[in-house]
Amino acid sequence: MREDYQRIWQKVDKPARYVGGEFNCPEMTGEGVRFCMCMPDLYEVGMSNLGLRLLYHRINDMEGAECERCFAPALDCAQALQEAGLPLPSIETATPLKDFDLVGFSVQYEMLYSNILYMLDLAGIPFRAKDRDESYPILIAGGPCAVNPEPFAEFFDIIDIGEGEEMLPEIVEVYRKHKNNPEGYDKTAFLEEVGTVEGVYVPLLNTPEHRTTVVKRYLPTFEDAYYPKAQLVSNIEIVHDRAMVELYRGCANGCRFCQAGFYYRPLRYRSAEKVAEICKGVIDSTGYAEISLGSLSTGDYPHLRELLRALRPEADRRHVNLALPSLRLDTFDGEFSEGARKTSLTFAPEAGTQRLRDVINKNITDEDIDRSLTFAFRQGYNSVKLYFMIGLPTETDEDLMGIVDICRRIRGIYRAETGKKDVTVSVSCNVLIPKPLTPFQWEAQIDTAEMLRRQLLVKNALRAVKGVSFHYHDNTVSELEGIFARGDRRLSAVIERAYQLGACFDGWTEHFKYDVWQQALADCHINPRDYLDEQPTDKPLAWEFIDCGVTRRFLLRERERAYQNQTTPSCNKACQGCGYRCASVKKEDNA
Amino acid sequence: MITLKYCKKDALVYTSHIDLLRQVERVLRRADIPVKYSQGYNPHMLINLGITLPLGVASTCEYVTVDAECTPSDFLERYNRSCPTGLVGVACWQVDKNPNLAGTVAAADYRFDGDLVGKVEAVSAIATRTRYVIDYPSKKDAEATKDVADMLFAFKADEKGLSVTMAAGNVTVRPQNLADAIAKEFGVAFSVGGITRTRQYVRDAKGDLVAVDDMLDAVARGKVHV
After folding, report:
1. Which has the higher per-residue pLDDT, A583 or A285?
2. Contact (Cβ atoms closer than 8 angstroms) between residue B113 and residue B99
3. Which residues pair with A218 in a beta bridge?
4. Which string of b and e fits A409-440 if b means at least 16 CB within 10 Å?
5. For B175-192, what is the mean pLDDT?
6. What CATH topology corresponds to A2-215?
7. Are B99 and B215 in contact (CB under 8 A)?
8. B145 vs A: CB within 8 A
């Protein structure tokens, strides 16, 4: 078998994507429960995902279980495999996917749904859970899209809601018990038992007609959360070619558009000591030139100073760059950027006026922006990247013009601070996609024509400001993202139809085929506006059988406050009563 | 300054030259070898890789020169503790200056594994040709050809494959193209992934080929072997 696949790798583009052999790759024996971890995107993208890495090594650290990997092959490779009549194999041992016990998919983004089917098709695995008997592996999905798994629910036997570090090993153990059952392995019996594991959703048994609540799984504390002693170091450049270490999970800010901010609650910190220890281990075990200290809002990490003090000497000696992504405007200060190369700064004011920032609860003022940038320019920065959203609830043209005002002001501040005019400002405007589990989950998504009008309005107004470039997201992609973000089970058929019609790699602009999706929606008699229009608050939304910890009452209250231009303070200041009872935990951590 | 001779094999045969540089840097960082860095805005490790190796070809004789203050034995030991098995080190020399192998290597030995039973004599005759035009497709010109007769310095066939000394470095013959041409003309079945570079040469003052190992032995202050 190996030789057959080797012949394929010899003739495809970037064979390193398929052959493995990375440093720190565990030895495989083919014994015990065999898990294959998949990401429906290219190797370079999949390998850049921290969650996938964590769970891959987590399973490999278990006794009697092994985890391999498989990513979506590029089109040339898929074609070569099909021509040779070879099924999609795992990276580590070139075992066909269908020979594994469990196959897990990390689902990161709505536009990857068609690629799940692309991989199953190449693997020779039937798409629908109900069509797979005991001879096929159990298919598991997890990742951020599990916040609303309904559009892809019919493809999977199990969907993991929440954090997988504990849940996945428990699933493996339940599977082992059933696989070793002397009376034979029975898929239904396995699904019934695995459905009792906290966080596990079994779509075949838990249907819209017969609902039971699924409670999101999360680690009670984050301090000792799993981190691999030695992680994979890929042999080719990947998208995020660096180590990632999380500072904390959850977010205290409660920005009303942000799904991650609500889904990843409660707030759980890791101590500076622990993070430093992990980072030092990472330098020794990977040799990466950069460690990204990640979280949803790095500047809000209460131990950041202490951490940088502890880590800088060793990082400097070994020439390792410490990257601090997701710094909020209000926390940016010189100490954090010290020693960093003065290139480009990225900030996300999200909205152009104070009023609209209050609506979305982005607790940043014009003064914060001015103060941070004054400081940054003094430090030597001369390039600023700004992220905004358009299509926010209550947004007017005046709010959009606020974006232009901010750009003008930035040029003014730069000139006042440096006496020069050579600042470049890059403005990026994405369309708000109302996401499940946010206070905006009931809001309408603006339609394509209105999107275009607002984008052009900003674009044209920005022409008058020198040194500003404007970027915006493809309208048609946003529309589909919106449909799938708030979709229900009827959409499984749409995904399948779109795949049949040729959709795959939809997340890649050059492969995205809008007309195919239009056709698929029409063929399945789906009206997109059902998902894009304002949703009624008097009946449950498709995903509300999942108890994510944040209550519906809290989200409705936040929505009401948004309409009244009222902000809600960070939950570091006072508990806002979102539904988690984490106030006591937080106080202790922040002490 | 240290010149390391290492293998490039297994999965690493699919790692490109630019990615290889990154891998070597990571090995050196993991090993905590005291490598010197360039000065300036964007400091980088002072590393000089040798000539490129085509993707998919294995090697037992790649070279990299690293500006590091340590003994060859210390270097080799630390390097091998931290490298992927596909990049294992085999020898180390202490040199006073960068031997610039990327610029001076002129030839290399390649071994092509394959089934030549019954075809040894016919294939061996290639060595006597004064003109040997093979397909040499490039991105720009899929139909391109190249006369490689003058670039094949030694050519020996046996029943299990071919051993060829040919141009490498700035003037080079792509081994895969040679294998494809021979496979096409004689119906030889070469093994998948069966091409290995086994020795590199520079030219001495008289223009004769000298193995890089011998050249390094002559200039080095110290040497260790695995």
Report:
1. A285
2. no
3. none
4. ebbebbeebeeeeebebbbbbbbbbbbbbbbb
5. 95
6. Rossmann fold (3.40.50)
7. yes
8. no
User: Is the bond into A393 cis (omega within 30 degrees of 0)?
Assistant: no
A400-436 pLDDT, tens digit per residue, is 999 999 999 999 999 999 998 889 999 999 999 999 9
CB A287 within 8 A of CB A231: no
pLDDT tens for residues A267-276? 999 999 999 9
Predicted pLDDT of residue A590: 45
pLDDT value at position A326? Answer: 64
The domain B2-103+212-225 is placed in CATH, from the list 3.40.50, 3.30.70, 3.90.550, 1.25.40, at 3.30.70
Q: How far apart are CA A296 and CA A246, in angstroms?
A: 9
Do residues A214 and A161 touch, judged by C-beta distance below 8 A? Answer: yes
Which residues are CB-neighbours of A119 under 8 A, at least 6 positions away? A38, A40, A70, A72, A88, A97, A105
| 3-state SS class at B144 | coil
Quick one: pLDDT at residue B222? 76
**Residue type (1 letter), A469:** S
The conformation of residue A148, written as its DSSP 8-state character, comes to S
For β-strands A546-547 and A248-249, DSSP reports them as: unpaired
Q: Which of B214, B33, B181, B201 is nearest to B110 (CA)?
A: B201
C-beta of residue A296 within 8 angstroms of C-beta of residue A261: yes
- Do the chains contact at B56 and A285, CB–CB below 8 Å? no
Per-residue pLDDT reduced to its tens digit, A484-522: 999 999 999 999 999 999 999 998 888 999 999 999 999
Instruction: Judge if B2-103+212-225 and B104-203 fold alike in CATH terms.
Output: yes
User: What's the CATH class of domain B104-203?
Assistant: alpha beta
A558: enclosing H helix or E strand:
helix A552-563
pLDDT tens profile A153-169: 999 999 999 999 999 99
Which runs of E-coded beta strand occur in A211-295? 214-215, 243-246, 248-249, 268-269, 290-294
Domain ranges in chain A are: 2-215
Query: Would you state the pLDDT for residue A584?
Result: 46
Tens digits of per-residue pLDDT, A280-329? Answer: 999 999 999 999 999 998 888 999 999 999 999 999 999 999 888 766 55
B128: tokens are 């006597």
Q: Is B30 on the interface with A (CB under 8 A)?
A: yes
What is the model's pLDDT at position A331? 57
Query: Per-domain residue ranges for chain B?
Result: 2-103+212-225, 104-203
pLDDT at A534: 97
Distance, in Å, from the CA atom of A108 to the CA atom of A365, rounded to the nearest integer, reads 32
Residue A230 pLDDT greater than 90, yes or no: yes
Determine contact, residues B199/B69, Cβ cutoff 8 Å: no
Q: Which of A449, A517, A531 is CA-nearest to residue A485?
A: A531
Per the CB < 8 A criterion, the answer to whether B106 and B202 are in contact is: yes
Enumerate the residues of chain B whose CB falls inside 8 A of the CB of residue A283.
Answer: 29-30
Residue A261: its H or E element: helix A259-263
CA distance B70 to chain A (A): 16
- Taking CB atoms and an 8 Å cutoff, what residues of chain B touch A14? 14
Answer whether residue A333 shows pLDDT above 70: no
Q: Say which of B29, B42, B193 has its CB closest to residue A6.
A: B193
What is the pTM for the complete model shown? 0.94
Instruction: Give the helix/strand (H/E) hosting B134.
Output: strand B133-135
